Amino acid sequence: MRILLVEDEPELVAALRTALGQRGMLVDHVATLAEGEEAILAGVHSAVLLDRNLSDGDGLRLLPYIRARKTAVPVIVLTALGETDDRIEGLDAGADDYLPKPFAIDELLARLRAVLRRSIELAPDFLRIGLFTFDWQNRSASVGGQPLGLARRELLALEGLLRRQGRVVQRATLEDAVYGFDDEIQSNALDMHISRLRRKLRDAGAQLEIHGVRGIGYLLKPAR
Known about the structure:
The structure is a single chain. The chain has about 220 residues and is α/β, with parallel strands linked by helices. About 40% of the residues lie in helices and about 25% in strands. It folds into two domains: about 1-120, Response regulator (Rossmann fold), CATH 3.40.50.2300; about 125-220, Arc Repressor Mutant, subunit A, CATH 1.10.10.10. The chain has eight helices and 14 strands.
């Protein structure tokens, strides 16, 4: 899962990157409205965390830009402007949730799970294929009830494949799911993540196969 963080407080950025990263999420950070507009154009994010007091204006100005692109990506406003009128203004502007600062990281994570559950992208809560189960809410995979231990980028690659299971996923689409704006991508890095993921699925008896499609990408489907 890839999150866009539009925030200009370095300490909060560092804390959120650590907290979300520990839960296997990929965080792209920008600090201004202008950078936020460029990031939204990529169309690769599952949710947006949006500050209001940015150096080039009120973060709420980004909401019409997001909604004009006909995207259902949920937006949570994170701001020091926490009065009732401020909250009403943010929600009326198109935010899915509004969380005044300071806030507890655990509460933000709970609210993030809630808005993602409401999004089309994460329905239903569980994906089951034979003995394999993926919990979209907690972002965890298991086989026969036993957790499948995956590194962060393996988990991100698996999510990208599961969202399009039975269809060929282009290599560029998977790279967008696995790597952030600031990541340097080695030529064979994605292949290495897929290779390890394929081995872990096989060793766990998941009965899922990842097939490479030459010159295009990868295909995930049940084993025969």
